């Protein structure tokens, strides 16, 4: 790079920074002033909040004044927020105002424009000249999409064509240009090399300076209702998803707020890992949740549902237990579209017969029997959907309860309760009564006023002798209070026997076929039924039953929806079943979906292949409304590690490593476990000395994690963390972690604790090993105390190095 160009750029940088500093300083008093003013107004607002109710006019006056003041306060606060956002944006820009520049000569114009790109926009004092363009602005996409030469970008007004004359990248720190590259490729490798060579962090970083063209296509996709991203491990799916959220918040800032976007992540710890990316970009975080959290929310009061981690532990460890094969068949079936269709048919069948209700009981008596409910429900117009009839039944039940409640006032138990009221209870009822009395008084006044106005006299019913009715009213209150839980449970549909409805599906084959029209039933059906019913009898559900159970609940009670959410992101999308996708679509009827995943890492039984032509995702919103983007370049790991990991995978040939060189993976075979753990300890010490701070010992299961942790600790590995499904916050350091919890996360160095045939030899274990190894950025070690897993044995020997035996 010529030195005078560098100097010119440094001078421009200083000019822009000076302007930024001036603007920040100018705004400072305004920001602080506004903050104080708003705080002061808020304080005074509460202090002065006295409402004069002496006369109606006084009351109205104070009411309007309060309303006016609070509107002013809200406006002031909005203005304040805008200004503070602007101010914070400039402060964020100051140390490193931009990272890219393109010179673009638009066709038909005589000059070209220098477009500097940073994390937000900054306009010169004239209000017209952009000193920095936000990376999400239409013109900034030139930087990500084209090398110098002919280029175009899309604006709301149409496509702008022209020639890119220069493309430059900067690394700026504390106001100094540290590096500057003129790129010929889309985004030059040099900068990416440097970024990727850095150490792992406890928090994911934003990638705006080096977004790749195919990632940009994901970030800016605005066309499809469903965007599917199938990408190799480390190809930047999660990164693209988060920058896409930032993009959507920018592009649709008038209509979409951060809390209208939700990200489904694989576990809570992953949530903490990605939580800083958006704030780093000056945006608020979207909502984050896990599917399990949702299930627990709706099921926890009814049943205990197994979580996906216990399910995977079972599938990986219980091969020798009785019933294993049936459970596996059950998982496969219950997560399939076939089961979804069967349940839809079951809904139709229930529309005709077979509904199950629970008697409504009161003081050990049956008030309304299940049979009566059933008869009533099937007497409603049969053309109505099942849930509408259940809602009608609910209304009928509430009416029935009201008339039964009236009858109960004469029951002896009510009189007895009245007689045995202690002082406190009496006072409580008396209080309730007086509230009613006030209401009565009010309605009495109103009735009198009407009488006067209409000049007519009501009958005697207006003259209530309150004192005489006190006892009767207390009695009424006693019965009302006792019926309250009944009304509440009817409103919550507790009269529907959901457990019975789900359980009755798991009868013999003939009855299942009759209820669901199902043709292909898993061979071990009767064992599957027994296992499911056993769980239900203990008020428990297998993980694979949880979503179908909710589905049946909604068939009967109506579908729950959230219309606020406009975008749903599903990360690790291969881990969701066809069933779950159907469910998410129903739950968020106004949302667009972005599903990102890697079938190569499909380690859960219910996996969905995102890109197969028969993938349920392809037709969830219809083919015309669906786009599929594939990412094959892997950025996380060194070339040597990617060459090794891609060969572990059937069909991994198409994965392209990014050209960052490093050590070949190292294989250690030790004579026994003690020696293996001593070797691991030694390797941890030496890698730490090399400066690698984040090292993960990855195990296959939680049980193996416990063993490894105890043994390594006894060997003297200090500051060792053990990650479990309960771990909420991801902290950098040396840790032992089961592979299924390490999904989506990365480490400087990964040690595969036990790469033996016992651990990794079945087909689904191949993906498990692949997932574990692909967590490594710079170093990968595999250990065994006997043979190597057949997947490792099958690798060409030039892909790794063996430590001497
Ligand atoms: N364009 C990019 N510029 C800089 N770094 C990138 C880029 N794309 C990806 N990376 C880095 O590569 C690593 C992997 O990215 P990310 O975690 O988003 O991949 P992923 O596809 O979600 O991986 P996995 O499927 O293994 O969870 C991260 O460290 C990320 O910062």
UniProtKB/TrEMBL annotation:
<protein>
    <submittedName>
        <fullName>DNA helicase</fullName>
    </submittedName>
</protein>
<feature type="domain" description="UvrD-like helicase ATP-binding">
    <location>
        <begin position="210"/>
        <end position="638"/>
    </location>
</feature>
<dbReference type="InterPro" id="IPR027417">
    <property type="entry name" value="P-loop_NTPase"/>
</dbReference>
<keyword id="KW-0547">Nucleotide-binding</keyword>
<dbReference type="InterPro" id="IPR000212">
    <property type="entry name" value="DNA_helicase_UvrD/REP"/>
</dbReference>
<keyword id="KW-0378">Hydrolase</keyword>
<keyword id="KW-0347">Helicase</keyword>
<feature type="binding site">
    <location>
        <begin position="231"/>
        <end position="238"/>
    </location>
    <ligand>
        <name>ATP</name>
    </ligand>
</feature>
<dbReference type="GO" id="GO:0016787">
    <property type="term" value="F:hydrolase activity"/>
</dbReference>
<keyword id="KW-0067">ATP-binding</keyword>
<dbReference type="GO" id="GO:0000725">
    <property type="term" value="P:recombinational repair"/>
</dbReference>
<dbReference type="InterPro" id="IPR027785">
    <property type="entry name" value="UvrD-like_helicase_C"/>
</dbReference>
<dbReference type="InterPro" id="IPR014016">
    <property type="entry name" value="UvrD-like_ATP-bd"/>
</dbReference>
<dbReference type="Pfam" id="PF13538">
    <property type="entry name" value="UvrD_C_2"/>
</dbReference>
<dbReference type="InterPro" id="IPR048228">
    <property type="entry name" value="HelD_bacillota"/>
</dbReference>
<dbReference type="InterPro" id="IPR013986">
    <property type="entry name" value="DExx_box_DNA_helicase_dom_sf"/>
</dbReference>
<dbReference type="Pfam" id="PF00580">
    <property type="entry name" value="UvrD-helicase"/>
</dbReference>
<dbReference type="GO" id="GO:0043138">
    <property type="term" value="F:3'-5' DNA helicase activity"/>
</dbReference>
<dbReference type="GO" id="GO:0005829">
    <property type="term" value="C:cytosol"/>
</dbReference>
<dbReference type="GO" id="GO:0003677">
    <property type="term" value="F:DNA binding"/>
</dbReference>
<dbReference type="GO" id="GO:0005524">
    <property type="term" value="F:ATP binding"/>
</dbReference>
């Amino acid at each position: 790079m010529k030195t005078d160009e560098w100097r010119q750029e440094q001078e421009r940088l200083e000019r822009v920074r000076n302007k930024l500093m001036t603007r920040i300083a100018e705004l400072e008093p305004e920001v602080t002033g506004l903050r104080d003013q708003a705080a002061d107004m808020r304080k005074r607002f509460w202090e002065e909040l006295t409402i004069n109710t002496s006369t109606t006019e006084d009351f109205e006056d104070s009411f309007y004044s309060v309303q006016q003041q609070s509107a002013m306060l809200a406006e002031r606060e909005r203005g304040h927020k805008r200004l503070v956002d602007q101010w914070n944006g400039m402060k964020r820009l100051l140390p490193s105002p931009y990272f890219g520049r393109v010179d673009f000569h638009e066709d038909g114009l005589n000059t070209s424009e220098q477009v500097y790109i940073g994390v937000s926009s900054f306009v010169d004092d004239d209000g017209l000249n952009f000193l920095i363009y936000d990376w999400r602005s239409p013109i900034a996409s030139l930087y990500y999409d084209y090398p110098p030469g002919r280029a175009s970008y899309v604006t709301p007004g149409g496509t702008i064509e022209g020639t890119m004359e220069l493309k430059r990248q900067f690394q700026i720190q504390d106001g100094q240009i540290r590096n500057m590259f003129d790129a010929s490729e889309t985004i030059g490798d040099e900068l990416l090399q440097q970024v990727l060579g850095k150490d792992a962090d406890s928090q994911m970083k934003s990638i705006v300076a080096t977004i790749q063209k195919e990632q940009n296509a994901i970030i800016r996709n605005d066309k499809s209702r469903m965007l599917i991203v199938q990408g190799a491990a480390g190809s930047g799916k999660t990164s693209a998803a988060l920058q896409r959220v930032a993009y959507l918040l920018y592009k649709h800032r008038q209509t979409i707020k951060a809390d209208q976007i939700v990200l489904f992540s694989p576990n809570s710890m992953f949530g903490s890992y990605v939580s800083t990316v958006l704030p780093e970009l000056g945006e608020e975080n979207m909502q984050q949740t896990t599917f399990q959290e949702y299930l627990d929310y709706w099921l926890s009061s009814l049943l205990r549902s197994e979580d996906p981690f216990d399910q995977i532990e079972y599938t990986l460890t219980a091969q020798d237990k009785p019933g294993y094969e049936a459970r596996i068949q059950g998982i496969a079936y219950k997560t399939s579209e076939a089961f979804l269709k069967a349940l839809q048919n079951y809904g139709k069948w229930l529309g005709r017969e077979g509904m199950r209700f629970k008697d409504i009981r009161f003081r050990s008596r049956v008030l309304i029997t299940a049979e009566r409910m059933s008869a009533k429900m099937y007497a409603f117009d049969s053309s109505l959907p099942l849930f509408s009839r259940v809602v009608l039944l609910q209304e009928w039940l509430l009416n029935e309860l009201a008339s039964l409640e009236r009858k109960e006032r004469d029951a002896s138990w009510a009189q007895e309760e009245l007689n045995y009221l202690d002082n406190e209870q009496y006072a409580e009822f008396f209080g309730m009564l007086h509230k009613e009395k006030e209401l009565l008084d009010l309605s009495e006044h109103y009735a009198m006023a009407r009488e006067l106005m209409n000049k007519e006299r009501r009958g005697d019913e207006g003259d209530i002798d309150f004192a005489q009715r006190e006892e009767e009213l207390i009695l009424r209150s006693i019965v009302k209070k006792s019926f309250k839980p009944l009304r509440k449970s009817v409103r919550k549909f507790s009269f529907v026997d959901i457990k019975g409805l789900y359980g009755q599906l798991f009868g013999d084959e003939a009855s299942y076929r009759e209820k669901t029209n199902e043709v292909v039933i898993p061979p071990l059906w009767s064992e599957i039924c027994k296992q499911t019913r056993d769980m239900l009898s203990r008020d428990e559900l297998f993980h694979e039953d949880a979503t179908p159970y909710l589905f049946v609940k909604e068939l009967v009670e109506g579908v729950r929806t959230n219309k606020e959410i406009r975008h749903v992101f599903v990360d690790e999308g291969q881990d969701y079943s066809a069933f779950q996708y159907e469910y998410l679509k129903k739950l968020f009827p106004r949302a667009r979906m972005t599903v990102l995943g890697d079938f190569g890492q499909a380690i859960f039984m219910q996996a969905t292949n995102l890109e197969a032509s028969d993938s349920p995702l392809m037709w969830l919103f219809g083919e015309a409304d669906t786009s599929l983007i594939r990412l094959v370049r892997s950025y996380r790991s060194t070339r040597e590690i990617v060459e090794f990991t891609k060969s572990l995978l059937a069909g991994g040939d198409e994965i392209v490593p990014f050209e960052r060189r490093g050590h070949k993976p190292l294989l250690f075979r030790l004579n026994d476990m003690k020696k293996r753990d001593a070797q691991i300890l030694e390797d941890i010490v030496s890698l730490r000395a090399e400066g690698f701070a984040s090292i993960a010992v990855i195990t296959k299961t939680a049980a193996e994690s416990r063993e490894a942790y105890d043994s390594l600790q006894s060997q003297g590995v200090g500051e060792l963390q053990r990650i479990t499904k309960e771990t909420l916050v991801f902290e950098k350091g040396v840790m032992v972690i089961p592979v299924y919890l390490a999904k989506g996360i990365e480490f400087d160095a990964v040690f595969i604790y036990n790469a033996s045939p016992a651990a990794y030899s079945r087909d689904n274990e191949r993906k498990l090993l692949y997932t574990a190894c692909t967590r490594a950025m710079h170093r990968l070690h595999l250990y065994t105390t006997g043979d190597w897993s057949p997947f490792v044995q099958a690798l060409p020997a030039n892909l790794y190095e063996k430590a001497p035996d």
